[in-house]
């Protein structure tokens, strides 16, 4: 398991407990001899509802995944539906067919299987969960993503895990960047609304006083 971000000791200790519990309850993969598996954790300085609003969009992964250029879903995103993903140049793939296996808005769980495409990630299955976390005294989020995948012929387990982990790290880094930017915009908007309301209240009181 690899931790990404989160330098505060108390946060890491609490996060480790949540991570262990979540792994035991939600991140269960049956890893066969010819497969590899791993878990990554990312701390994000944005509230959990905001992060989840991006993660849950099975039909719009390009909102935060930098390697996806286009996504097509037939019908409403629901358990069992498929999405066709176009991958940007620079990766050893151009398309991917993926099935939605889990989508739990209460527990914040997203499960996806890759079932086709011109790539080498055969029998790839991932589970992503998001958890509320206090970071530097503010409401933040801990994201846990785990996966299991076949080891392609000619590759080692270490090589395969390193490649997949690198992709996930890029996705989680981008998720953090987008989420934190949106969180900052929300704060700025709230401050502006408060200031406008306060100014209007003062002007109204001033007018009444003059009368």
TrEMBL record:
Origin: domain of life: Eukaryota
Keyword Protein biosynthesis listed: no
Predominant location: cytoplasm
One GO molecular-function entry: signaling receptor activity
Keywords from the named record: Abscisic acid signaling pathway, Cytoplasm, Disulfide bond, Nucleus, Protein phosphatase inhibitor, Receptor
Record InterPro entries: Plant_def-hormone_signal (IPR050279), Polyketide_cyclase/dehydratase (IPR019587)
Any Gene Ontology CC annotation: nucleus
Subcellular location: Cytoplasm; Nucleus
BP-aspect Gene Ontology terms: abscisic acid-activated signaling pathway
Transmembrane region(s): none
Keyword Metal-binding: no
A Pfam family that the UniProt record links to this protein: Polyketide_cyc2
PANTHER family to which the protein is assigned, alphabetical: ABSCISIC ACID RECEPTOR PYL7, OS08G0374000 PROTEIN-RELATED
Similarity comment: family membership: Belongs to the PYR/PYL/RCAR abscisic acid intracellular receptor family.
Descriptive protein name: Polyketide cyclase/dehydrase
Lineage, opening ranks: Eukaryota, Viridiplantae, Streptophyta, Embryophyta, Tracheophyta
């Amino acid at each position: 398991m690899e931790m990404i971000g989160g330098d505060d000791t108390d946060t890491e200790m609490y996060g480790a407990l949540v991570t262990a519990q979540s792994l035991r309850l939600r991140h269960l993969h049956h890893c066969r001899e010819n497969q590899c598996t791993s878990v990554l954790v990312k701390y994000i300085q944005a509230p959990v509802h905001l992060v989840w609003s991006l993660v849950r969009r099975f039909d719009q992964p390009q909102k935060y995944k930098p390697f996806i250029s286009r996504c097509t879903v037939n019908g409403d995103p629901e358990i069992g539906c498929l999405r066709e993903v176009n991958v940007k140049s620079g990766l050893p793939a151009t398309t991917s067919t993926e099935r939605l296996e889990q989508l739990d808005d209460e527990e914040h769980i997203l499960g996806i299987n890759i079932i086709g495409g011109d790539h080498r990630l055969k029998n790839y299955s991932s589970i992503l969960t998001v958890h509320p976390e206090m970071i530097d005294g503010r409401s933040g989020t801990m994201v846990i993503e785990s996966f299991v995948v076949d080891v392609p012929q000619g590759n080692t387990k270490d090589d395969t895990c390193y490649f997949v982990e690198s992709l996930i790290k890029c996705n989680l880094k981008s998720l953090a960047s987008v989420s934190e930017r949106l969180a900052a915009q929300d704060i700025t908007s709230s401050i502006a609304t408060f200031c406008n309301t306060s100014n209007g209240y003062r002007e109204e009181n001033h007018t009444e006083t003059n009368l």
